[in-house]
Specification:
about 450 residues, alpha/beta, two-stranded antiparallel ribbon, 15 helices
Length: about 450
Amino acid sequence: MRFSNAKWVISAGLAALLGFVIAVAAVFRLHAASGEVYAPYSTYRADPQGAMALYEALDALPDTTLERYIRPFDRIPDGQDAALFIAGASLGPDPVEVLENVEAFAMQGGRVVIAFRPLTDRFALNFLLDDLKVRERASKSRDEPDEKPSSDQMDEEPGDEGDSEPPDRSADDQDDTHPEEAPETNHAGDSAAPPDADEAPEDGRAGAKKDEDAKVVDISERWGFSYDFQQAEGGFGAVRAGDRENIEAVLASVSGLYFRGAAPRWDPVYLRPGGSTERPWIVAMEMVLGSGSIVLCSDSYFLSNEALRKHRASGFLAWLAGDRSRILFSEAHLGTQQRDRIMTLVRRYRLHGVLLAAILIGGLFVWKNATALLPRVERAPREAAGSARSHQEGLDNLLVRFIPRGQLLETCMKEWRGHFHGHPRADAVEALHAGLREPGGARETISERYNRLVREMRRRQ
């Protein structure tokens, strides 16, 4: 009865443990299906902050190939007839090599769409602007000459000392003395007047001069525009700029970030109310680069699942994708990257057989070292656990291990011959043993024959 109760208790415990494991697996499966483990504006997310609906909608279009790009940006494929969406991008400097690859993608005929993550407070933007100002001052200090003329050299210059005019103050001194006369500036020396397109380098650099050895640079400095922020209460609508009739007249937006002071090569697409004609507040703008283009958006809300349900901008989304037959949605900048690990290489080069062979060899090695190849010998249990073995037990073990059972009696006769050589009882025992080995001899077991021989030896002492 006790055994029966214990069995039921163990069965109930195992069933409860199995149920718990199944419940935990179901919760994790549901959590992974919603995509909440991924960053906002990821195409793996099905919640309002994801972009899965847009991805699946574009994937349903005929003659269109969709792909989630999870490789590093230094391996961007050819941009011909392709579009690259970078949704939910963060503010901050980027490696120069990455920006060069993005520009090469566009110059090959690709279309790059960069949409920043919605900004609802100014703290993150202020941090970026302060960093840009520090780097601008460092760049100016490197550009200034190291040697300045001494007082003796200045006295030797021609001209009357009393009639000499004071040297002109630098632009920084003028800005500190008369701030009201300084041009309106956001960061990195971007003035109210946009840079001249003829003065901008062909690779898209504009604004402050960058050191050739710089490893990172912000796209605002490289592509010629500036950031600004104005808090949006409850969201606002961006108004269409220009005569593009194939896109919506108003675009829903929730971010307080916008662009201003853009270079002439930027063509505004959507404007935020509040700017001026000379310096509009830009929400989306496009720049032609080579045979392709780059589109910058200050907000990613219109790409989200929530926007596609409440504020769908189908015309603008179709304009962003263009007529490209291959569309890539970047997941690498959101933290989802494919790296060349061991299992990735195994799948790529089809090394499954090699892996299984290595596992089999490892298992054989463990089995060889854990199990002896000699057969097991059943031994009688000791009377007292932990007692030391005697010499007789050691002799018995040697006999059992090294002398087969069928040769035990022959081995004893060989030992007796050597010990009792020339003794009469040895001859008698030899004769008795020879008679037992004859075909007509008595059929006895080895132990019975051994006992008869021992008795005969004792009788003839």
